[in-house]
Fold this sequence. Notes:
The protein is mostly helical. Helix content is 64%, strand content 1%.
Amino acid sequence: xxxxxxxxxxxxxxxxxxxxxxxxxxxETRPASPSVNPSQDHPPAIILEPGQTPEAAPAExxxxxxxxxxxxxxxxxxxxxxxxxxxxxxxxxxIWSPIPTDAQGRSAYGLYLAGKLALMTGEGERGADLxxxxxxxxxxxxxxxxxxxxxxxxxxxxxxxxxxxxxxxxSPAFTEGGRLIAAVQTFVHGxxxxxxxxxAARSIAAPHARAGLMVAPWIAGAAGDWTRALAAPPAQGDPxxxxxxxxxxxxxxxxxxKYAEAEAELKALSDLPTLGALFHRPYGExxxxxxxxxxxxxxxxxxxxxxxxxxxxxxxxxxQAGDPPPPAPNFRQGAAQALATAAAQAVAERGNEFAVVYLxxxxxxxxxxATQIQLAQVLDRVxxxxxARTALxxxxxxxxxxxxxxxxxxxxxxxxxxQSEAALTELRxxxxxxxxxxxxxxxxxxxxxxxxxxxxALTLLNGPLLNTADQGAHIHFLRGAALESLxxxxEAEAELWAAHQADPNNADVxxxxxxxxxxxxxxxxxxxxxxxxxxxxxxxxxxxQDSLGWAQFKQxxxxxxxxxxEQAVEKEPANAEINDHLGxxxxxxxxxxxxxxxxxxxxxxxxxxxxxxxxERKIANGLDDAGPATGxxx
Length: 634
C-alpha cells in the first residue's frame, strides 16, 4: 500500500516546495501586491465581458462555456493574449488561389501547416518562424498574423512579435500589446529616443495601460526626457499601481541626483498604512547608498518586527556584515523591474497571459534570476510546463538562495512530468546550494521516500536540520512513512501518532496511520475511524476512499466495501491497488466473475512485483478462504 499511497505526502511536499520557490521570488524581487480594486484609469490586466465583474470572471483553470483549451507544444494549453473580444476575421482558406509562394517555392499554406506542426511537436521557435513566413506571404489574413504574433510571444521572439503586432481591426490586447512590445524592443536595441517619442505621441492604453505607465518613465529618462521621466504619476488609479509608479519616480529622482526629493518620496511610501511594507527594503537600500547606515538599520529592524521577510532579512544581514548595498538600477534595469512589477499585479488579477509578455520583455531588458523564476511560475500556472523548465534551467548559482529555489521548483515540475530521478537530482543540487535550509531538506527527504531510498531519507529526517524540538507534523509524518517502509512498525506508529497529535485534521496523516492499523490488523476499528475522518476531510480523494473501503472490507462489511471501492475506482481508474481491493470485495459478495476480471485488469496496470504475484495466485485459486477459482470465466 505504501508505494501507491506515497503520493499523498508527496503532494503535500509539492505545496511546500512551491512555497519555497515562490517565497524566494516574492521576497527577493517585489512583495506580492495586496488585493485592491483597480479604478477605471488603470483597469485590471484581464479582459471582462460587458457588465462582468472580476469575481464573476472564469477561473484560471476553467475555460468559459466548458470549451476545450487549444494546445501548444508538449500538449500545453495555449496562451490567449487577446481575450474574448476579438472581432471576426476572415477564415484562413484551405486553398489559396493563386497559391502564394516564397523565393524557395514554398507555399504559404505549406509554411502554415509546417508551423502548426512544429508548435504541436514542441518546436516553438521554429513554429513561430514558419508562421511568420506564412504571414509575410498572406498579409491580407489578419487571423494568421495574430497566430504568428501569439506564437512569437510564446517562443520569446519579441522582435518578430513587434513586427507582427496587429495594428487595426484587432483586439486592444493585440494592438496595445504590440505597441508596448515595439516600444520596449526599440529601447532594447538602443534607440531610447525613438521609443520615448512613440510613447509620448500616445500612451499605452488598456488593457496594458499599467505596464505602459510603469515602463515609460524609465525609457524617457534613458532618452534624456527628464520632464516626462519625473512627471508625477496620475492622481487617480489603483493604490498599488500608483505607489509603485511613485517608487519609480523616486529612483529616477535619485539618478537625477535630487536626493532629498527621492528620500522624501521613499519615506512617504514606507510610511503608508497598508502598502508601506512593500517599500521598507527599497527605502533602506537608498539610505545605505547615501551613507545613512544607522537609519537603514533602523528601517530594516523595524520591518522585521513580527515578520519573516526573506529579502529584508538578507538586507539586514548584509548591512550588519559591512557589505555594500546594491547599486541603484540603471535605466534598463529599472524598466525591467517596472515590467516585472506590472507582471506581479497582472498575476494577482488572473492576467497570467499578460504577465508572460511583461516578463519576457523584462528579461530582454535585463537578464535576472528572480525574473526567470517569476516567469517560470507564471508559465507553469498557465500549463506551459516545458517552457517553465527552460526558464528555471537558466537560473545560475551566483545567488545560492535563488538557485536553490529554482532547483526546487524545477524538481516539482519534473516530478509532475514523471521524471522522478531528474527531480531528485535537482533537489540534491538545491540542498547543496542551501545546506542549512530545513525546508529544502524536508522536500528532499520526501523525494527520497518517493525513490524508495528510505535510509537516506531517515538520515535527513533524523539530522539536526529537521530533528528539532519544534519539528512539525510533516517531519513526523515523513519519518513515520520511511520507518513503515522499512518494516519498523512500532517506531512508525509512534511518529505517525505524533504527526496526528500535532495536526489532528490532516487528511494525509489520518489516512496513512489509519491504513497502517487496518492493513496490518493492529487496530482495525480505530483505524477505520481515522479513515472515516480522512474521507470526510477529502471526499474527492480516490486513494483515501480506497483506504476507507479496505477498512470496511477488513471489518467484514463487504457490501458496504463494494460501494465505497467502486466509487474509489471511478476516481482512480488506473490504480492497480484500488482495482485489486475491489476485486477482493466482489469475491466476498459472490461476484466472482467480476472479481477475476478486475484481477486480470490489475495485471495490465503494471503493479509492483509483490502485488503481481499475489494477484496471479488469486486468479488461479481465489481468495485463501474461498476455494479455487477453477472454472470461473476470465
